[in-house]
Amino acid sequence: MPACILVSPVEAKPQNGAVPAIDRLRVVDINDPHISVLDLGVTRGDGIFEVLGVIDGRPHGIEPHLRRLSKSAAMLDLPALDLEAIEGAIHQAIELSEPVPERLVKIVVTRGIEGDGVATCWVIALPSGGFESERTEGMSVAVLDRGYPHDIAARAPWLLAGAKTLSYAINKAVLREAARRGADDVLFVSSDGYVLEGPSSTLIAKFGNRIWTPSTALGILPGTTQDSVFKYLDSRGFATAQGIFGRDLLLKADALWLTSSVRLLAPIRKLDDDVIPVDRELTDDINAFLKDRTS
Ligand code: PLP
Predict the structure, then answer these.
(1) Do residues 120 and 112 make contact, with C-beta atoms less than 8 angstroms apart?
(2) Which residues have a Cβ under 8 Å from the Cβ of 48 and sit 6 or more positions away?
(3) How far apart are CA 43 and CA 166, in angstroms?
(4) Which atom of ligand 1 is nearest to the CA of 202?
(5) 84-120 tens-digit pLDDT
(6) pLDDT tens digits, one per residue of 132-142
(7) Between the N and C ends of the chain, which has fewer C-beta atoms within 10 Å?
(8) For a pocket test of ligand 1, which of 201, 225, 261, 293 has the largest count of ligand atoms closer than 8 A to its C-beta?
(9) Whose Cα sits closest to atom 7 in ligand 1?
(10) pLDDT exceeds 90 at position 177
(11) Residue nearest atom 4 of ligand 1, based on CA coordinates
């Protein structure tokens, strides 16, 4: 069964020196209605979220996901979140959900009901999986224009580039465009031609011993899975770095991957019409590392 926990996401203020005893975590039935039709997360997509993977009962990257959630909250001027309460809800949701080999935990925070100033937050745990073919056989990827220049984060921070907001309609629309082009996924480039990220993944490129990922200065989301992969590859003697580069350089790579918390590492075997080599041995090795992580 999927599990859902409603969380009171902002720390209660002490009254007369005492913190009011309120019910911070409430387990609810996932099939019942809980969110108001007036909630700004529903009416405007005004909120943030995180998704983390759980393999064989072990949640991956709770701390970096909570750090990123808190950064997204700050970028949207949402109240500071009680990360301890949210972490408690993550563990409780995992405990209450069906112990299948692969699960995901989704944390959602919205601005709440207009005028109330109280954020809404819930945490759900669901079965996931079904990504073995992408992890092993790889994917064909369409390169699509993100529609803004590579320096958008510095030029227009109010556009929230690099925050994980609930407004993912575009991130899903591009997958339908990819399907129309016969591709499985998407790699965004900036309007001035620099490689950015996938709609829900980070790019990693291998050139011999050097491993690159696009710089987070480009207004992209800092990937928690990419960060784990880089730490692992550093320990194996590879030289990892962030960079700013165009699509043409990718054709010189001896492997390209898209990484994300639930699908893990998926090789790109075709970029538009260009065939990209797949390093199956290294891919399997990194995915084994990602699956076996204890945190
Ligand atoms: N980039 C975007 C836009 C994403 O939505 C995601 C995850 O959903 C990622 C990158 C990959 O991040 P992570 O590895 O932390 O899942």
Answers:
(1) yes
(2) 69, 72, 73, 76, 78, 108, 109, 163, 164, 165, 166
(3) 11
(4) 10
(5) 999 999 999 999 999 999 999 999 999 999 989 899 9
(6) 999 999 999 99
(7) C
(8) 201
(9) 200
(10) yes
(11) 200
